[in-house]
Amino acid sequence: MSNASFRVPLLVEEPAGIARHRAYVRVGVPLPEGVLHDPTEVVVVDGTDLVLECQSSVLAQWADRSVRWLLVDFVTPLAPNARVPLTIRRKNSNDHVPAICPLRLIRSSDTDAYVVDTGVARFALGSDRRILIETAELAGEEMLGASGVAVQLTGCSGTVYTAMVQRLEVEEQGLLRGTIAAFGSFRSMDGADALEFKARCVFLAGESDVRIELLIRNPRAARHPGGLWDLGDQATVLFRDLTVHVEAARHARRMQWFAERSDATRNDTPGCWLLYQDSSGGENWDSENHVDAEGQSIVRFRGYRVIAGSDGQKRVIAEGDRANPGVEILADQTMIGVAVADFWQNFPKALRATPTTLNVGILPRESRMPHALQGGEQKRHNVFIEFRTARDGSSIAAWLHPPRVAIDPAWVEQTRTVLCFKPAIDDRNGQYQRYMNAIIDGPQAFTAKRERIDEYGWRNFGDLYADHESVCHRGVRPLVSHYNNQYDFVHGALVHYLRTGDARWWRLGDEAARHTIDIDIYHTDEDRAAFNHGLFWHTDHHLPAATCTHRTYSVRNDRSPAYGGGPSNEHNYTSGLLLYHYLSGDPEAGNAVRELADWVIAMDDGSRGALGLVDPGPTGLASKTVDDEYHKAGRGAGNSINALLDAYQLCGDRPYLDKAEELIRRCIHPHDDVAALSLGEPEFRWSYLVFLQVLGKYLYLKLEWHESDYMLHYARASLLHYARWMLAREVPYKEVLDRVELPTETWPAHDIRKAHVLNVAAHFAPRREHAAFRARARFFFDRCLDDVLSFETAYLTRPLVILCGNGYVQAYYDSDADALTVPEPLAYAYGKPAEFESQKRRWRRTLPSRILRLAKKLGRAGVERIGLRRRYTTPLRL
Question: Taking the CB of residue 862, how many other CB atoms lie within 10 A of it?
């Protein structure tokens, strides 16, 4: 075990002007290789070296099994608007570690039930599978009534479906924080099942609150006839209401609530009360973004309304644009309150109260239209339930405005956990820095662009407005187009957050990651292997999203037999989700990385489709780019390899790396005839650059894993072979715009990739070639920025994202900071390049001899063997 010392500087900021005696903070921090093996050896200290309450766990490891990413939870006092420097370091013998009354998760010996003891409150889960949390005891008082905390879904006909817990699982158990996940489905009184759910219940030591992350999922496969993915298809589930229901043990004598600001809290006599957010409340609240399957608007009015009174006596007592509310009911000695994160952003939302109940309308019945969850779609919401004695103050406002935390960028650089990382303060490329700042500040900021198409609502929030698709649009209202994490904006945003410590980058990355995980990934096992668990493309070029939401192709845009499609390898981005998992500890982000990597393996597995009956070999769907029979360097193969590398980094399962290396050998060779590949024709071959960038990542990871084997040298020789061609033949794209269909600013933006590839080549090339590669890389970097900025459209979303995710590496190479030692090349005999044949081509070539064998096997196989999915005739209207 290493005894190396280390100090990780953090800066924690209180953002809302609230005094916090015990502010809970969670952050993932990187560590250098070899400095820590046991996560319990760390402490968090303040500026006086006072040790704070904390717990830590391992998120990722280096090749030597030391900790690479450490997830740290801690408690610290924060004064209003304070910015407090803290340090994570190794524990020493002189530290006075605070005595913690530890959180305890106690499992029943004979049932799958738990009692959670936080030191100040006790909760029971699991005895009654119809109830999520059965009891909540505080200061000797039972807080919950017989129904406890339960989740209910109401169908369009009024049928009530209760969330039935099928199993409980302890996801994490530490001194400060514990999570119990409940898995199940919604079931009616007659036993019919509807949607699936997962509810993560988070408990904190010394606190009486419960944080619930509720995920609902429709596991059915979408019908998508002709490759069109519109709302209202036969796999869609329609329902009227989804509510978290909290029943109090006692009748309340008063209630208090706030809508937009906690310092404007109002007191009322308990009765029937509702705060309902119908739309975003923005200037474009009734955008064409918000439509149902028929293209009809789903919103009724701008913003929110607060309504008091029962039927016949209802009256509006307050209204406004954007609510971020909380509500509490108070009995003589106790108080219960509720809130939900991103209330107005994820509209529609509702909070409801009576003298004995509180309800959180996750997808509320007050909405104009039934809610439609598409096949393979899911959504998460974060709900907060507080239990307090009458003498305690409310904690809702503090929860709604969590502390901000930033890791010192210099420390991140020192750890070498993020490839090609350099702090922004040390980046001498001022023009690049100013261009990137437009993403978070000013009229072109991505938050400002959201307002143009009102990129809000539970299905849209977190995505970017793809304004580059609307340049030729001449309609009265803006063209609605969704970005769906193209070119991995999540990764770019989070790297810039680490480079700067600016919370605006974190918010964009956090919101985009959660949207991508929930909405853009196709969460089903029931479709074909090429689609199951894949990532949907951005919505189609220059056409409105219409009723396909975030699923690319709409029947309303159907113009030719060639129109339509589905998830494919060319749009598969995992690195941002992996970094988000490391920084946030979100387990769904890690699950999504594995899901997308497994999709790569499944789509290439020929045995999973009908042709696999006679040819189970690889399909080629993981390695094609543009053309089904092009399996050379391109973004399709590059993104597949990248996803596999990310999954291998995450969990260390060797099959991911084996498959990545198989695809590398399939698509590139040290003796390829590069000139014959027409790489100088950008329209169809520009994305060879993406592949080479991923190949460079693979080489860096091989060095990090201390693997100097045949594949390292094969990949190195291949990269240098192509880079030498680039050195001699590549020119800035602005000089060849006559060869492309649409000569936009996006073409010179991709020149940033040439700079990246040539910089990597300089690191792995013989020293005599370093200067030439570095000089040409610098040339492309400078030309890229100058050429992009020469367009009036320079500040559209797509060029900004391309530069965001690729331009920051230049500062790393400018500093000559490459410390990874490259082994001397070995004289391997690589043989000759072999042409890969896809499963379809192999089938066509050998068709006559296979027909008889196929007919015989089909007779024995049965429907499931050839991969036919379940068929639905109509949407499921609950």
Answer: 9
φ and ψ at 458, to 5 degrees?
A: -60, -30
Summarised one tens digit per residue, pLDDT across range 756-797 is: 999 999 999 999 999 999 999 999 999 999 999 999 999 999
Is the C-alpha dihedral spanning 744, 747, 748, 750 positive or negative? positive
Give CA–CA dist 108/489, Å, rounded: 45
Residue recorded with tokens 């590839």: 757
Length of the chain equals 878
d(CA 469, CA 492): 21
**Amino acid type, 586:** D
Q: List beta partners, residue 6.
A: none
Burial class (CB within 10 angstroms; exposed 0-12, middle 13-18, buried 19+) of 87: middle
Q: Which segments of 90-214 does DSSP mark as H helices, in order?
A: none
Distance in angstroms (rounded) separating the CA atoms of residues 371 and 348: 10
**C-alpha dihedral (129, 132, 136, 142), degrees to nearest 10:** -60
Classify the phi-psi angles of 362: left when phi > 0, otherwise alpha if psi is within -120 to 50, otherwise beta.
alpha
CB 499 within 8 A of CB 421: yes
User: How many Cα atoms sit within 13 Å of 788 on the Cβ side?
Assistant: 27
Count of CB atoms within 10 A of residue 451's CB?
Answer: 16
What are 819's strand-pairing partners? none
Q: Among 325, 302, 346, 396, which residue's Cα sits nearest to residue 511?
A: 346
Q: Is the pTM of this model over 0.85?
A: yes
- With tokens 């004064």, the residue in question is 79
For 447-466, how does the pLDDT look when each residue is reduced to its tens digit (9 = 90+)? 999 999 999 999 999 999 99
d(CA 270, CA 248): 13
Structure tokens at 831: 């043989």
